[in-house]
Amino acid sequence: MNAEDKLVVRRISNGTVIDHIPAGRALRVLGILGITGDEGYTVALVMNVHSGKLGKKDIVKVEGRELSKEEVDKIALVAPTATINIVRDYEVVEKRRVELPGMIEGIVRCVNPKCVTNAPREAAKPRFRVISREPLKLVCEYCSEYLSEDEIIAQLAGS
Amino acid sequence: MSFRGKDVLCIMDFTRNDLERLFRIASSKFEGDELRGRVIAMAFFEPSTRTRLSFETATLRLGGGYIGFDAVQATSVAKGESFSDTIRMLDAYADAIVVRHSLEGAAKLAAELADSPVINAGDGSKRHPTQAMIDLYTIWKEKRGIDNLTYGVLGDLRYGRAAGSFLRALNIYSPKKVYLIAPESLRPREELLDSLKMSWEFADLSEVLPELDVLYVTRIQKERFPDPAEYERVKGSYRIDASLLRDAKSSMIILHPLPRVDEIALDVDSTPHALYFKQAANGIPLRMALLREVVP
């Protein structure tokens, strides 16, 4: 992290720093993690700061919460470049890259209104296979409909 | 490989060898009572004539019995019972479940919920694997093979589950060429086109007709057109009659999953091209072969 960032956000004692989020997507990352602000976590969010690697990037810091591997993988849907730093007692104890799993379950819904996963009261959870990582493209396991990156982002931004 | 206990959800789950084995069994005119003591559930959440009656006939001919419904009005579904709960119940009653539903992926969901094998008798607008098996079987019998033939697939290639399944089925083989003959608004979806491994192109029927070995015709429904005037404008280009067939090879066969409305004129029925009634009749031996192999 460069000096400029340090001026904006102080270090956290315990929790998670999600760095190298593509510029403008920090709110979506929070959305995926289900952090609305009501949970009481201290959350710092930096958008559109300079990054040597990405040009511009966003950063999210969540005090008092360590992300599970599953949560980290979900982040890959909207922020495939993100890096995760787990902080304990002001020290980074673990660094992880996000990794898009081959199968995405229950995070996004199918865009096909006739898909069984969109039927109310049925036991089908939306499940998608990743068929392209760049650009992101998923295919519904039930009805074979494609889900594009734009549709995924639109859904996650709305959630 | 054995199909015993296996779900039949999509034609693409089958290999050439699997299909070849089914075709050989179906064409052997076998009789038997392999389903004696077995109960097959016919869960038709959407109306069907041919598919349901042929599954029922195939079950009876193998000595089995069946339960089921073909109108949800007469079941607890009308009271609000979910599809999932209905399937769980049928799974407890029957040795296999044949399911048709208007929702895409309903058969896959049923297969996840049921221990008994589930046979997809058409779900949504994309999959109808046993129809595709019958289509392939008819070609296999008539043409002594499925590879190296030139195919025309005509009609509603977007919402018609039979046409979509047939195209997926051709993927398992090596056709010489496949022509897709459809109005622009009824061309196949991107994901289906992406999955086609053979050489294909969009075409007009009159241009490619002389090349075709097999013409697969499906119905174009007026309701699919946002503008009725557009339907009136294009419908003539997708209608087959005996005079049009003068340009076709004498050996060209016409298939149609039925029901036919007016896309194939009655004067075609008496030509040697018309294979669609034979194709419908093939539904019995093929579904008998499938039930014999699948039901535990």
Task: Please tell me about this protein's structure.
The complex is a heterodimer of chains A (159) and B (296). Chain A has 159 residues and is α+β, with helices and mostly antiparallel strands. Chain A folds into two domains: 3-97, Alpha-Beta Plaits (2-Layer Sandwich); 103-157, Aspartate carbamoyltransferase regulatory subunit, C-terminal domain (SH3 type barrels). Chain A is 19% helix and 36% strand. Chain A is built from four helices and nine strands, in the order H-E-H-E-E-H-E-E-E-E-E-E-H. Chain A has a five-stranded antiparallel beta sheet. In chain A, strands 6-7-8-9 form a four-stranded antiparallel beta sheet. In chain A, strand 7 (127-133) and strand 8 (136-140) form a beta hairpin. In chain A, helix 2 (26-33) packs across helix 4 (149-158). The longest helix of chain A is centred in the last third of the chain and has 10 residues, at 149-158. Chain A is elongated, with a radius of gyration of 17 Å. The two termini of chain A are 30 Å apart. In chain B, the strands form two sheets. In chain B, strands 7-6-5-8-9 form a five-stranded parallel beta sheet, with helices on one face. In chain B, strands 2-1-3-4 form a four-stranded parallel beta sheet, sandwiched between helices. The mean pLDDT of chain B is 94. Chain B is α/β, with parallel strands linked by helices and 296 residues long. Chain B is globular. Chain B is built from eleven helices and nine strands. Chain B has helices at residues 16-27, 50-61, 83-93, 106-113, 129-143, 161-170, 190-195, 205-208, 228-234, 276-281, 283-294, and strands at residues 39-44, 65-69, 96-101, 118-123, 150-154, 177-181, 200-202, 214-217, 253-255. Chain B folds into two domains: 31-124, Rossmann fold (3-Layer(aba) Sandwich), CATH 3.40.50; 129-281, 3-Layer(aba) Sandwich (Rossmann fold), CATH 3.40.50.1370. The interface between A and B is medium-sized, with 18 and 21 residues.
